[in-house]
Amino acid sequence: MSHVIDGKAIAAAMNEQTARSAAQLRARGIIPVLAVVAATGEESAARYMRSIERAAARVGIECRIHRLPLPASLPQVASKLGELSRDPAVHAVICQNPLPEGAALAAVGSSIAVRKDVDGANPESLGMLAVGLPDAFPPATAAAVLEILRHEHVSLDGRRAVVIGRSSVVGKPAALLLLAENATVTICHSRTRDLAEVCREADVLVVAVGQPQLVNARYVAPGAVVIDVGINPASSGGLVGDVDASAVAGVASAITPVPGGVGPVTTAQLMRHAIRAAISEHIQ
Ligand code: NAP
Can you give the pTM of this predicted structure? Predict the structure, then answer.
């Protein structure tokens, strides 16, 4: 059977460290502040925001949620993000997805100052990641994928990594981070031919597609590590990933579960980024 990676335990260890850093900042009179701009009334967005609020409270970060009057326009969202970026009391800024009018995050992300852009929403942050400049934050989910691999001691140097999904928030930045660890990276998407065959070349398979249980045993080489980023509502209620975990269980050496895998590590990574932003603002 595959080893089931415990994302909650990884997140707990990260949060402990983050809480220590937050306490050190507070002891110096600095309150770390994460601002969230909410521009839609969608329930999934509201649920995510509540979980961010709880996570921030647990580690000693003040979370300020700015709810824009609905319906909010993109210029209003951009203006609020800009205002928070200029506020010296705010260290980290994120914008809740989905955006009004179905717009991509990149449409307003450039209004977030790069040094406060803890979820990598500014296209400049992605560009800096692409050219290997260290001073920008990658999107928390992509960073969480790498954190899980690091925690599980999965070697990447010279190994084959396949990422399914090419979004700017998960697939592309995850591929760039894997490349920075010297993996040989293939990015797949909806037009990729022979997807299962390409995936079977992977030592590490990262799946960020948004299609419930798309990946089954045909996609996985024996012994591969599978990171399932997908979060999809299950027909029976609850959540399922992009990987059919029970089908892959006898083939992969390790797999992240859904829920309890990438999700909690993503939130922990966001908090870690927020603290890093506060530290670099005041101390470095
Ligand atoms: P997205 O923007 O919709 O991108 C999905 C990607 O998958 C696209 O590149 C698309 O290809 C590709 N794709 C779709 N169907 C495919 C298929 N049948 N075969 C191959 N590729 C296919 O989604 P996203 O924002 O990256 O999110 C992906 C998943 O991760 C979702 O389930 C989302 O809920 C989840 N997620 C989880 C977290 C977390 O914290 N765990 C955070 C963010 C997202 P094209 O580019 O060709 O359309």
Answer: 0.97
Does 214 contact ligand 1 (Cβ within 6 A)?
yes
Does 260 contact ligand 1 (Cβ within 6 A)?
A: no
The DSSP code sequence of 184-197 is EEEEE-TT-TTHHH
- Name the 3-class secondary structure at 161: strand
Q: Which of 247, 211, 252 is nearest to 229 (CA)?
A: 211
Q: Where are the beta strands (DSSP E) in 2-135?
A: 3-4, 33-38, 62-67, 92-95
pLDDT tens sequence across 70-121: 889 999 999 999 999 999 999 999 999 888 877 888 889 999 999 999 999 9
Beta-strand ranges (E) seen in 39-88 are 62-67
- Cβ–ligand 1 distance for 267 under 6 Å, the answer no
Q: Kindly tell me the sign of the dihedral angle through the C-alpha atoms of 152, 157, 162, 167.
A: positive
Distance 208 CA to ligand 1 centre (A): 4
Task: Report the phi/psi class of residue 237: left, alpha or beta, with left for phi > 0 and alpha for psi in -120 to 50.
Answer: left
CB of 199 sitting under 6 A from ligand 1: no
3-state secondary structure of 262: helix
Q: How many secondary structure helices (H) and strands (E) does the chain include? A: 10, 11
